[in-house]
Amino acid sequence: MNTILFTWHTHSDTLSDFKHALTIAQNSGAKSLLLLTCSQNHYPEAELSSLLRACPLTIFGGIYPMLTWKNTLIKQGALIIGFKEAFDVTLFSQLHQVTNEDKLEDLITNTLEQKNNYCAHDDFLMFYDSRINNIEDFIDCLFECLDHGINIAGGGAGSLDFIQRPCIYSNQGLHSNVALLVTLPSKLNIGVAHGWKIFQGPFLVSDAHGQTVQGLNYQPALEVYCQAIESASEFRFNGSNFFDIAKNFPLGIEDINNNLLVRDPIATHNNHLQCAGNIPINSMVYLLESNSEALISSAEQAAITAFTATTEITSAAMIFDCISRELYLADKFEHELDTIAKHCPTPVLFGVLSLGEVANSPNGAIALLNKSIVISSW
Q1: Which of 99, 119, 260 is CA-nearest to residue 183?
Q2: Mean pLDDT for all residues in the chain
Q3: 115, 154 in Cβ contact below 8 A?
Q4: Do the Cβ atoms of 65 and 160 come closer than 8 Å?
Q5: Mind listing the pLDDT tens digit for each residue in 33-82?
Q6: Interhelix angle for 333-343 vs 292-307, to 10°?
Q7: Preceding omega of 202 cis (within 30 degrees of 0)
Q8: What is the mean pLDDT of residues 87-104?
Q9: N or C: which end of the chain has fewer CB within 10 A?
Q10: Angle value at C-alpha 79, between 339 and 112, nearest 5 degrees
């Protein structure tokens, strides 16, 4: 089923160009608009929020470090995708204030009860503020509350400096500390991959809290992490190059089926490792490694999975690709985009470089991923 009516993209970073395109989109006959913009645009927040609130169509989307259109990387600019249908969009707000599982379940349940049609939907896109510190608790609880075999693809919005700013778009304006759940009119097909393999380990997570790993093998986590890398590679930490080295060596949690859940160390504090996802205490983690060929090959496998899962006509394909993959691949990143594009059956191929990815795990539950690629089609 062809749901796409309007597409527009630009490398311009001016709000006036985005505003002009939004006017054209509103006059296209579309009923819903997906709005995606680059964080480097630095649109004036008040003016942007007023523009969103004035839009008469259903809107959703967010601000991401970078975007993709077909096989092109957009570092500054914007995308607008117009759909024939009026998509149902649910906003879960003030998530950072929900401090325990019972309250989170109440918030999700009460929000969903205001909608009468969720029992008829199984397929969703999700856009969320990547700086919400309890996003994994929200994801777990959302899966339990929807209470059926849903398919979902999504990614965290924000900017590479990891400073929290409003980054999610809705008809109510510009938001932080929120998640958007968008129902799709047809079946969502998903391919997920990461391309990382075990380098060293395992290490016991002897002390951890949420996304912060405080101890590995009963020693300070940062010391163990750095020593393990320096002992088996040419890399040397000097106090200012942590992220440059760490992007090559994420952590991995192995499940009972030998699948690796990747966790990206993004900062250090007090000899602790700050990751872009939870790592449970008493779990066993590995240091991982990869190379350009393996990452690009994994993206190709995800594309094949997403694009060959159905015989139905695909009208749109959206990629949620971790920004750290682009940082790792550098000038080879467009090879990854080329590889995906050659398998894509629709000309409407677009995406975001995200700060965390969301997709179904092999057992059907929803998982927060790092350093991964989620390719969706519908």
Answers
A1: 119
A2: 94
A3: no
A4: yes
A5: 999 999 999 999 999 999 999 999 999 999 999 999 999 999 999 999 99
A6: 20
A7: yes
A8: 91
A9: N
A10: 100
Dihedral (Cα; 116, 118, 121, 127), 10-degree rounding: 120
The rounded distance, in Å, linking the Cα atoms of 167 and 287 is: 32
Full-model pTM: 0.95
Amino acid at the residue 131: R
Diameter of the chain measured on Cα atoms: 62
CA distance 351 to 66: 9
Mean pLDDT of 83-90: 93
Q: Which of 285, 63, 260, 274 is nearest to 160 (CA)?
A: 63
User: CB within 8 A of 219, min separation 6: which ones?
Assistant: 206
**How far apart, in whole angstroms, are the C-alpha atoms of residue 38 and residue 159?**
8
Between CA 151 and CA 364 the distance in angstroms is: 8
